[in-house]
Amino acid sequence: MRTSRRRVSMVMMMGLAACAVACGSCRDTSPSSVRATTTPLIVEITGGFKYVQSVANHEVDVAFLKSTTGACAIKQMGIELVVKDGEIVSPSPAPADLTFDPGGAVITFGDSGAEALTAVRTAAAPAPYHPASPTDWDDLVWIPRFDAFYPNNPLNPNWRQLVDGRMVLTHGKLVAGKPSDDAARTGLFQFTRQSDGATFQQAVTDRAIYTTQLPGDRVIINLANARSGITRIEVKPSGGLPVKLLLVGRHTEAAPKLKPGDVIHHYCAFYELLSPVPTMAERMLPTYIGDPSKPLLGAPSPGAYCPGEF
What we know:
Number of domains: 2
Order of helices and strands: HEEEEEEEHEEHEEEEEEE
Number of strands: 16
Largest sheet: 7 strands, mixed
């Protein structure tokens, strides 16, 4: 009997050892082995946002501009956060148009299980200053930036107090998106500084796409300090689709459409975030040098085509 028990014990131990070695042949049912539910999220960002990148922190903040006065007088009409795909669980009842006002808010998402944020941007747009393919807009270089021309005018260290809210991105992936207007997909812009004639050309997009995976069965959107009073939105996926949000910037502008040779004057507002703030003659403004074969360049929101600044 003792010998029999030893044999049974040895068989059990050998079986456990085989299970540990041949990991594919034995199922681990411990809680840690069960893959947590995740919810995919897509955010399409359209309009004149200021993108502030912190490479060390793997973070990009999408900042909402405030209205400006003086020589650069631009009236910002606010920001819209639209649930394009998904079921709004909270607040309840949900707005009939599925649209929220995130003005004044710092927007963050629930804890993310994704890797640290990836935001790939080349140093400068290479000749011919346009994506190699009409479908290749991923590089964030197509969201223009001007900091190399302003070594003595860095971003104001208090920029967070100078904007009307921001969306904080720390995980997942951020890429540029194909422009919302057909004419911009084949056209070019020329940035010129009146004071010294400094200039550069490149294609420009008004869209960025953010994707990530969030743990749990829903997307949790936190809106700290939102003027609307809504501080939390919960959205579940529906129809087997990822949760998709639209973040749209709206502002007024005299001309609803641009034609080749027109200057995008409302771009001057980005310079209000520099320290010291450059004079109007020192601000680089984009001129649409475009594609005459395409229709006039416009945008779905009020005002002419409205690119961001990175």
